[in-house]
Amino acid sequence: MSHRPSSGLAAVSTALLAMSRHLEVRDVLKTIVASARELLDAEYAALGVPDDHGGFAQFVVDGITDAQWKAIGPLPRQHGILAAMLREAKTERIADVRKDPRFEGWPAAHPDMSDFLGLPIKDGEETIGALFLANKKCPKPQGGCGFSQEDEEILSILAQHAAIALTNARLYERSREFTIAEERSRLAHELHDAVSQKLFSLRLTAQAAAALVDRDPARAKGELKQVALLAAEAADELRAAVVELRPAALDEDGLVNTLRTQIQVLDRAHSARVTFDSRGIRALPAAQEEALLRVAQEALHNALRHSGAGEVDVALVRCGQGAVLSITDNGRGFEPWTVRRAGRHLGLVSMRDRASGVGGRLTVQSEPGKGTTIEMEVPGG
Fold first, then answer.
1. Number of neighbouring beta carbons within 10 Å of residue 67
2. Mean pLDDT of 357-367
3. What is the DSSP secondary structure assignment for residue 344, as one 8-state letter?
4. Residue 377 reports pLDDT greater than 90
């Protein structure tokens, strides 16, 4: 690349770094397309991810306005040169795409394109996408393509890294889906226990009313009123909890909203009062927010399942550029050193690992009969 501008290598490096910075599949696709178009000075760029039905599951363009894209109509099918790239998995560099025998035309609103450079994006032997550029912004050689062999080599490098970035993004989204499913399952279990307790109370109260019907109708009437009250209360709580029991994506809702929603569900599901307070929190790096959320979940599980607490208070406050999370309960408490000696950890090891993994620290304060406070501090990004 000796005849390219001195910034050429820097531009390639910038493009590759931009690809690796995103985790959402859609963001990765848009970054790949924009980087390719800018780097190779093309008028248009696009990337299609094929589906299994002859179409494209996703198709991202750059160089076309939203109004133009809307006017063009539905996503393209796998036909013509696009189909050949996907089927034969080879690079296509064409002087005028309109004169290629495989060209099958395009919609009326589609911009006019001439020279074309496209190649498949492959993960091993699998073709996971097709990346192509059109209309190189340069004088065209007589009867030749504006895109050069050097452009092809650069685009090939981008495609290789695009495959890695796209595969990583897919793995991240799949992992997040599993995490959401796991969290929904855990919260559903909490609600199941709460429902069981409510139903048990209803059953006992109804049995008491039945036993009193003949010998003390007035008391039986009072018990039946209690049954109606418990049933209404259970219905209201469960309805509210179900509304809140939705997949809370940390990167969409943020740490504060995700914690608040989950704590509201737990407050309804348990007899203990669970509160949440947050002050001055700013967005933190994704890894730190996830670590704080997981530590909060583990500490809440311990407090609600094992401590016998009547109150659990969760606070998340700003500390410099970072944050401090604290979970305090008024339960029975324990001697931390005896827990370690007995080989029981109550999740403390995993909580400490999560804290240290993001440069933070975790402290545990507890005494028998005096409750427990777990505090995690993380630095800012």
1. 9
2. 91
3. -
4. yes
- CA–CA separation, 164 vs 156, rounded Å? 13
- Tokens 């970072």 sit at which residue? 322
- What does the pLDDT read at residue 93? 93
Question: Residue 347: is its pLDDT beyond 90?
Answer: no
Q: DSSP assignment, residue 112? A: P
Which residue carries 């209690």 as its tokens? 226
SS3 state of residue 108 = coil
**198 secondary structure, DSSP code:** H
Q: In whole angstroms, what is the distance from residue 299 CA to residue 364 CA?
A: 10
124 Cβ partners below 8 Å, 6+ apart?
Answer: none
Q: Annotate 191-229 with b (16+ C-beta within 10 A) or e (fewer).
A: beebeeebeebbeebbebbeebeeeeeeebeebbebbee
Helix (H) or strand (E) holding 44: strand 42-50
CA dihedral 117→123→125→129, nearest 10 degrees, is -40
Cα–Cα distance measured from residue 131 to residue 258, given in angstroms and rounded to the nearest whole number:
37
Query: According to DSSP H, which parts of the chain are helical?
Result: 8-20, 25-39, 66-72, 80-88, 149-212, 217-244, 250-269, 286-306, 336-341, 348-357
Whole-model pTM above 0.85?
Answer: no
Long-range residue pairs from 74-78, CB within 8 A, at least 24 positions apart, any chain: 75/48, 76/48, 76/106, 78/50, 78/54
Count how many Cα atoms sit within 13 Å of the Cα of residue 72 in the half-sphere of its side chain. 16
